[in-house]
Amino acid sequence: MRPAYFVMxxxxxxxxxxxxxxxxxxxxxxxxxxxxxxxxxxxxxxxRPVEGLSDPPTLFILKVDPRNGGSSHxxxxxxxxxxxxxxxxxxxxxxxxxxxxxxGPAKVTLGDTTRDVQGGSTVFIPSGTWISVLxxxxxxxxxxxxxxxxxxxxxxxxxxxxxxxxxxxxTKAEDAAILxxxxxxxxxxxx
Length: 191
Known about the structure:
alpha+beta; Jelly Rolls; 2 domains; 5-stranded antiparallel beta sheet; 4 helices; 23% helix; globular
């Protein structure tokens, strides 16, 4: 059993604040907001198509990031890719990524390796590594993505609208300007 004066000293540090302990606790609680989200909950957004390209608008959900939950260290979300749809070849210069494919099949190209994968597959994408995903199945491909640092989610917001808002296609000039502004977070492979 701890002596009473020890317990009282700890209480004084936490409640009365003798500097570091209270400030540390306040700083931790100010950083993030705990969240419990159901499958379809979060910031629901739809990609805007780029004029002249045939990709249909698809839904993604930002669940945890600096705006949702206040995380300063990570980004977590989900996305559905329609049959025949794809995530084009790109890389993230400042962040590692993990993609978890909840179902399949899909064709994943990671760096110089291409593999056909099934549901339950995990893809670890180190910073700077090229990645693309093609839904080769007959059902929507459900995937989960996690980034080790914020950045890409702001590109996602810039190229999308909230679900239910009018989906106006991006001009090629608008798309190029958004890509240039977010080059620290994502670079797409030129065709």
